[in-house]
Every structure is written in C-alpha cells, then in structure tokens.
Design brief:
The chain is α+β, with helices and mostly antiparallel strands. The chain is built from ten helices and twelve strands. The strands form two sheets. It has a seven-stranded mixed β-sheet with strand order 3-6-7-9-12-10-11. A five-stranded antiparallel β-sheet has the order 1-2-4-5-8, sandwiched between helices.
C-alpha cells in the first residue's frame, strides 16, 4: 500500500481560492522555522497506509504534563482553605484503555441528560476502533487525551486522532493541504478532534462537573496545543463542537470557522399533517402528492427500531434510502417527540421537505503563523458568504411567512 506522501502530493494541485494570499516564505513561519524542515524527536512519519505488520513508531512519552488547579474547592471549603489540586494529562492510544464508565460520565456531564449524545459514548467510539474503522491502518490513529487527579479519577477526556488524510470529517480542508504542499510544506499528518465519520454537533472537550471544571477545560486545551507542537504536525482541528465551546476558543489562539447543514425542527407537532400546515400551500401539495404515489404503487412503508433490524434489511436499505427517508424521518421524529432531524450538508432539495439551513462550527490551530494568518483571512471571507447563503435560503424557504427563521 502507498505511504501518505504518495497519497497527498499531486503534481499539479488545484490552486485554492486563497492561495495567492499565502506568504511566499515556502513553509517558513514568522519565526523563521518551517514545518517542512523542522527536526524533532517526536515527529511522526507516514505510517498509516502500510500493511498491519509495519514497524511501530518509536515509543513516545505519553505524558502531557501536570497542571495545578487553584481556587474554590469542595462545597463548604473556602478558597483560602482549599489545597491546590494537581491534574495530570496524558495520551492513550486506544479508548479501550479508558474505563467505559469514566468516559461516559464525562460525556453525560458535558452534554447533560437532556442532550445526551450517543456518538460521544465509549461504546460508539470503541466500536469504531474494534471494527477497524478508526485505527492507524485507515489513517485514524487514536490519540485520546485524558485528565486525572491525584487519585486517578478521570476529570476530562478528548476524542482525538492523528490523521494522514481529510476523509470522514465533513469540514473540508483539502485546499489548505494543497496550499501547504504548493509552498513546500507538509499538511499531513494532522490532529483531528471529532467523532469519525459522524458530522453531528456536540461538545468535544468532555469535562466532569465540579468546582474546577473551567480549569480542567483550560488544561485540556493547553494539552491539545502542546501535543500539536510535540508531534510537530501542521495543525489541530476540532470539528462540529457546540456553539458555546466554539465561542470560547477564539481567545485561546484558535481560528473559527462556520459551515452549514440542513436540519428539521420539531415545533411540537402532534402529527405529520400538522407539520404540513406550517408550509406554503404549493410545498404542502407537492409533499402530499409524493406520498400518494407510494400508495398507488402498492408499496408498504414500515419503520423499524434498531433491535428490529436484520441483515436482510441492511442489504436492501441503501437502494431505497435517498428517496424514502426524508419525509419518513420527519414523521418518525414527530411520533417519537424528537426535537430535530439532522440531514447533514449538501442537497438544497432538502429545503423543500422542511429541512432548513443551520450554522455548524469548527475551530483550528496552526503551528505555522504565516499560514495561520492567510487561512484566517480566507475564513473571514468564507464566514460572510455562509451567513449570506443561510439568510437567502431561509427567506426562500417552504414555510409560511413568520416561520422561515423561527427556531
């Protein structure tokens, strides 16, 4: 199998829309040290695309240091009386090295029970590793960050991967990679904080509730940046975080990016017909005609829950899903009293079925400050375009006046 260099370099890469804005220092940062030419004992070469028996990378120090947390301690103890709390931060090469109950406790505290996110659970993330989906051989090397106190209690976790490509992320940075290579620098590997293959918004820095919560958060952010420098990778990317987490990161040296997805919002509908009554007459008529065609063809639509699905169902699922899931998903959400249906990005046809554009978020950290400035300039322009497109799509949406931009 080819190594990452063969996979990333292209003889005539397409120039990115912001390439002319990049510095002409050919990969050198403002400090005069280029990523391409830096030599560091911890630097990781391309090892993701080789056979499973490839030589393992040299052992690295998995510790990212210790942090002293100060201030208010346990309830009833004043700030002056509370002893400083020491937190150690380290990297694990598999989520299986973390007890599931500890990881899930961090997830539950970070999301809250009312917004429980199954994709951040230990069970989901470990299944991606155990099935060989998110592993070294596929370009997803787990580098999860864990914060523990002196008693080995886990206070926070971060799902993190060392990646040799940009597939399975859904926040596209291929033009950034092209720009790096055009100037003689290396973009891959990079660090990616996300849920692999799953563009669903949720917190990415998962912290237990407690009086030191904010300081643990800051410690994990510092550890993520330290690991980026320690590995001498080009960059660190955090995709599909919550808006509140995204807002915090600007002051911590991260670039902010926005994107767009299509979501359906449940306005406490009692049934599907009540949802249709919120739509303009022409859009409502089109959807009803589509649904009548199913009955006219003697087709029976049946919705199955996870435990009811058999192998034969999965075998035929893909053939039909594009034309049948949009309305059925909305109907199911109403019956199950779900708040929303997330249909992902792309496909303006989704708007006519009631899926409206919403803003998604990501934040990014670059070691090379020259490239960081150029990318930030690009993001400023991109953000303006995203805002404009969302505004125009809402104004021309399928809902009655007064409901187009209503949450």
């Amino acid at each position: 199998m080819a190594v990452v260099a063969a996979n990333c370099y292209c003889p005539n890469p397409k120039r990115s829309p912001f390439l002319s804005h990049f510095p002409s220092h050919h990969g050198k940062s403002s400090s005069g040290q280029g990523i391409k030419n830096s030599v560091h004992a911890f630097r990781i070469s391309a090892l993701f695309w080789r056979a499973k028996k490839a030589v393992e990378p040299p052992e690295r120090d998995l510790s990212l240091g210790e942090f002293i947390l100060t201030g208010s301690g346990p309830e009833g103890v004043s700030a002056n009386q509370a002893a400083p709390k020491k937190v150690s931060v380290s990297v694990v090469s598999s989520i299986l090295d973390v007890p599931s109950q500890d990881w899930d406790a961090c997830n539950m505290d970070a999301t809250g029970p009312e917004n429980f996110n199954p994709f951040l659970t230990h069970g989901f993330l470990s299944s991606l590793e155990e099935t060989g989906c998110a592993v070294k051989e596929t370009g997803w090397m787990p580098q999860h960050i864990i914060a523990k106190d002196e008693c080995d209690n886990i206070l926070g976790v971060v799902p993190l991967y060392l990646k040799s490509h940009s597939s399975g992320e859904f926040v596209f940075d291929y033009s950034w990679a092209d720009a790096y290579y055009s100037y003689g620098s290396r973009y891959y590997p990079k660090l990616q904080c996300c849920v692999p293959f799953t563009p669903v918004t949720g917190p990415r820095i998962l912290i237990r509730n407690g009086s030191y919560k904010d300081q643990v958060f800051d410690s994990l952010v510092s550890a993520m940046k330290d690991l980026t420098a320690k590995l001498q990778v080009s960059s660190l990317h955090v995709t599909f975080p919550t808006e509140s987490e995204w807002e915090k990161m600007k002051e911590k040296g991260f670039l902010q990016r926005t994107g767009m997805q299509y979501h359906w919002k449940n306005r406490n509908y009692k049934n599907f017909d009540e949802f249709l009554m919120d739509m303009k007459q022409s859009k409502r008529k089109n959807i009803r005609q589509e649904r009548k065609k199913i009955s006219a063809q003697n087709l029976t639509m049946k919705r199955l829950r996870g435990y009811e699905i058999k192998a034969k169902h999965w075998d035929s699922f893909y053939k039909f899903y594009r034309n049948t899931t949009d309305n059925k998903a909305i109907e199911a959400a109403i019956e199950l009293n779900l708040n929303r249906v997330e249909a992902g990005a792309q496909g303006e046809h989704k708007i006519q079925r009631g899926y409206m554009p919403v803003t998604t978020y990501s934040y990014h950290y670059f070691l090379d400050k020259g490239f960081e400035k150029a990318i930030n300039d690009f993001l400023v322009r991109e953000t303006s375009q995203v805002k404009l497109v969302i505004k125009l799509l809402h104004e021309s949406g399928p809902f009655k006046d007064g409901l187009q931009t209503k949450d």
